[in-house]
User: What shape does this take?
Amino acid sequence: MAEREGVFIHPQAICESPSVGPGTRIWAFAHVLEGARIGSRVNICDHCFVENDVVIGDNVVIKNGVAVWDGVTIEDGAFLGPNVALTNERWPRSGFPKGLARTLIRRGATIGANATIVTGITLGEYCTIGAGSVVTKDVPPYALMYGNPARRKGWVCVCGLKLAFGQKEKTSCSCGREYREGDEAVKLLQ
Assistant: This one.
């Protein structure tokens, strides 16, 4: 097992990027291109591909079989489940490049296995995307989204538990955090 400046790189992985933070682990058959910038304590699992124009924050988990294409930024603490499909062309056509769109996965966002994230959108902080969902538009912070196309089905706490507002404007999670629900948005109070 290879170790480079506090970075674990499996001997059957390829990491061409010099910009990988300490405590990061890159597992077998993963390939990280030279221009990628990867933070600290990131876990890139087997059979992942990370292209050049990619920024990955600290404490990110990218499970098996995920390709992170040019134009994708993943902020701190995000989780991408197995086989999440990210895209970067709005109108893909071989031989007719139209320019890449940028996708932003905000801090703490969770994306379930086999979900598809269409290019050019932002997933809000601490949102949760259900397994197998197809996300075609921006997602607000703390939103629970699932389906094809994904629709908001509720709200989630920073800790990942579903929030229950009922007819109330404010609610608390069992972890102690409080939230206020407004017009299609939730705000963390404490």
Summary: The radius of gyration is 17 Å. The chain has a mean pLDDT of 94. DSSP finds no helices and 26 strands in the chain. The first strand starts at residue 2 and ends at 4.
